[in-house]
Amino acid sequence: MPPIGISLFRGLQNMQGAAGLERRLRRGVADGTEHPTRGAERLCRDMADRPDGFLIWIHLQNLDEIEKIIGLVQHFRSDRSDINVLLTTAIFDGAVLEVDDIIHQYAPYASSALATQFLDHWQPDMVFWMDAKLDIALLPEVFERDVPAIWVDAHLPKEAQSQWRWLPGSLKSILKGFDTILAETERSARELRKFGARSDQVVMFGPLQLQVVAPSCNMAERDGLARALGARPVWLALGVCEVEEAALLAAHKQLVRRSHRLLLIIEPRDEERGDGLAQRLEDEGWGVARRSHDEEPDPECQVYLADQMGEAGLWMHLAPITYAGGSMGIGTELNPLEPAALGSVVLFGPHVNGYRDAYRRLEGAGAARRVSDAKTLKEAVGHLLSPEEAAKMAMAAWDVTTSGAEVSDLLREKLSDVCDAAEIRGPHANA
After folding, report:
1. How far apart, in whole angstroms, are the C-alpha atoms of residue 145 and residue 124?
2. What pLDDT, in 10s, does the model give residues 94-122?
3. Short-list 130, 186, 51, 189, CA closest to 408
4. Is pLDDT of 5 > 70?
5. 365-409 pLDDT, tens per residue?
C-alpha cells in the first residue's frame, strides 16, 4: 500500500480529471509554456510508436543537458548498437531536439491515469532519471512494474526538501524504489540518506560529464597518409566556412615562413566549395592537393583540401592541432571533445553554436585556446609548434576527456547487466 502522501496526491490528481488537464494544456499552449503542436503528448496522445526491442527511457527536466545525453548514448551504442532510446523532458523551453536516433517526447502531466497510459505504451526496459524533481505519479508506477531505475546526478534542492515534508513517507518510498542513486556531491548523498535512501543504494561519483566516443577511421588509410606526411608538422581546420578562409590562409602564410614544411589540412563545411577554394589557393600561389582527386600531400603541398565529407575522423587522427571551423564565421558545430580524445589541441573562435560546456572545460584545463582573427590564430598555432607545449596541452585534453568517466562506465555496466537479463528472458516486441 502506498504511503499516505502518495495516496493523497493521487486523490487530488484524480479530482482534477481529464477536463482539468485539457484546460491546463490549453493555458500552457496559449502562454508559450507548452509546445504549440506537440502538447498532446502531455496527455499521452499523438505519441510516437514504440520500436521493437530493448528500450532505455531517459528523463530530463529540459534539453539543457542534451549534449551529455548524446555523448552517453554514443557510449551505450558503442557497446550495443541495437538499443532504442526514449528521451522525455518535463519542461518545454523552446529548444528543439535534432537527433535522428533518439525519440523525444514531452513527459505526461502528473496523473496516475496518464502514468499508466505512458508506461503501457512505452514499456521501458530501463530508466535513467536525470531530473532533480521526482515525479510522484510516474515513478511509483515504474517501481511497481519492477523496471530497473537509476537516479543520475541525484540531489534534493532546498525547496524540494520543504515540499516533501508535507507528504509523509512519500520521499522515502520513492527513493527506495531506485536500484541505484548516483549522488551529485557528498552533501547530496548525506541528505538523500537522511530522507530515507539506503546506504547501499547511494553512490557518490560526482555529476555526469559530457563524454564522447573517439572518432573512428580506416586505420590502414590513416597509417598510409602518416607515412606520406613523415615528420611534417600538420594543423587541421574542420568544417571551414567561406568567410573565414582568408583568416586561415593569412595565418598559414605567416606560419610557413617560420616552419616551411608546415601543412594545413582544410575540410570545407560545404563539399561543393572544394572547386572554388582550390582555384583560390592556386591563384594565390599555394601548393595544393585535393582528397576528392585522390591526390596525396606530397612535399610540395602546402594546403591539402579534405573535400570529401564523412572523413573528419581520419584527419583528426593525423593532426595534433585542430581549429573548429566556422567559429570565426557563422558558428561551429564541432564537438571539441572528439579531437581532444585523440590528443589534438583545439583552437576555436567566438562563435560556438553548441557544446559550450565542453569548450569551457577544455579551455579552463588548458587544453583549448580561444582565437579571434588571423593574428591570434597564427600566434596559437605557432605556440603549439613547440613539441613540449603541444604535449602539455594534449595531456590536459586527455584529462578532460577521461574525467567523469566513472559515472558513464557505471551506467554502461548497469545497462549491460539489464540487457543480458533481457536476452535471457527472450525478445521484447511491442504488442
Report:
1. 10
2. 877 878 789 999 999 988 899 999 999 99
3. 130
4. no
5. 999 999 999 999 999 999 999 888 888 998 898 888 877 678 888
Grid coordinates representing 2? 502506498
Three-class SS string for the chain?
A: CCCHHHHHHHHHHHHHHHHHHHHHHHHHHHHCCCCCCCHHHHHCCCCCCCCCCCEEEEEECCHHHHHHHHHHHHHHHHHCCCCEEEEEECCCCCCCCCCCCCEEEECCCCCHHHHHHHHHHHCCCEEEEECCCCCCCHHHHHHHCCCCEEEEEECCCHHHHHHHCCCCCHHHHHHCCCCEEEECCHHHHHHHHHCCCCCCCEEECCCCCCCCCCCCCCHHHHHHHHHHHCCCCEEEEEEECHHHHHHHHHHHHHHHHHCCCCEEEEEECCCCHHHHHHHHHHHCCCCEEEHHHCCCCCCCCCEEECCCCCCHHHHHHHCCEEEECCCCCCCECCCCHHHHHCCCEEEECCCECCCHHHHHHHHHCCCEEECCCHHHHHHHHHHHCCHHHHHHHHHHHHHHHHCCHHHHHHHHHHHHHHHHHHHHHCCCCCC
Q: The whole model's pTM is what?
A: 0.78
Q: For cell 572545460, name the residue.
A: 361
The pLDDT value recorded for residue 51 is 95
The three cell numbers of residue 84 are 532504442
